[in-house]
Specification:
The protein is of the alpha+beta class and about 240 residues long. The chain has nine helices and six strands, in the order ααααββαααβαββαβ. A four-stranded antiparallel beta sheet has the order 4-5-3-6, with helices on one face. Strands 1-2 form a two-stranded antiparallel ribbon. It is a multi-pass membrane protein.
């Protein structure tokens, strides 16, 4: 039996200790996520930590430290696919980024444990728990702070609806009026919205704007001949 040839009590105990440490530390991280009712909770974070520890420990026992380093790089990229599964886009909002980052950190904990770096595994666990708990009051305070529209950087788009006859003039007016207001246009898009209805969209270069000035430019565009509607919208930069 191949098992009798490869079995060694000392290395097996070492592997068991690595997996045990990964299990305990992954459970600590997962318990905090489960308490917060996150999609990736107790079992997921524990399994990620144990799995990463098992792969790294296996590579280390078979081929040594050099091979375990290569396996760690595979673990990092593999966890990226798992993290993508918990990220969901809901309209303009993206949810699950923190959960995916926590899974990534759980894999780091397991990789440390699998490499027999127990102190480092504990340190990573403490920092992950601190990031998910101690920083919450700071995040809440920042989110409650009033937003200064003049300093906030975002993606701004100004749209105008017109007919094909006035398309060129409206397009030119959009660029000229925005440049005159010191809001350079990064891109200009023309979309056909139906019979004799064209939409011209001016995308501003990433910048901060004064809302009153953008409203003024929009009003001027709306008053142009052939323009049936003009509006602008803002989306936060990712």
């Amino acid at each position: 039996m191949r098992f009798l040839e490869t079995f060694a009590l000392g290395p097996t105990i070492d592997s068991a200790f690595s997996l045990f440490v990964a299990f305990i530390l992954g459970t600590l991280v997962g318990a905090e996520r489960e308490y917060r009712q996150r999609s990736a909770g107790l079992r997921t974070n524990t399994l990620v930590a144990v799995g990463a520890a098992a792969f790294v420990d296996l590579a280390q026992r078979i081929a040594g430290d050099a091979e375990s380093v290569r396996v760690i790089s595979y673990v990092v990229s593999g966890i990226g696919f798992l993290g993508a599964g918990v990220i969901m886009k809901d309209g303009a909002n993206v949810r699950g980024l923190n959960t995916a980052a926590t899974l990534w950190c759980s894999a780091a904990i397991g990789a440390c444990a699998g490499s027999d770096m127990m102190a480092e595994a504990v340190l990573v666990t403490l920092f992950v728990l601190a990031g998910n708990t101690l920083l919450r009051p700071l995040v809440a305070r920042i989110e409650r702070a009033p937003v200064d529209e003049a300093t906030m950087e975002a993606r701004f788009e100004l749209r105008a609806m017109t007919d094909p006859e006035h398309l060129a003039a409206v397009r030119r007016a959009l660029i000229l009026r925005l440049n005159a207001a010191n809001y350079p246009v990064g891109d200009i898009e023309v979309t056909e919205r139906g019979d004799d209805v064209m939409e011209v969209t001016a995308v501003l270069v990433s910048t901060a704007v004064v809302v009153a000035e953008l409203e003024r430019v929009t009003s001027e565009i709306a008053a142009l001949p052939g323009v049936t509607d003009a509006s602008w919208e803002r989306s936060t930069l990712e």
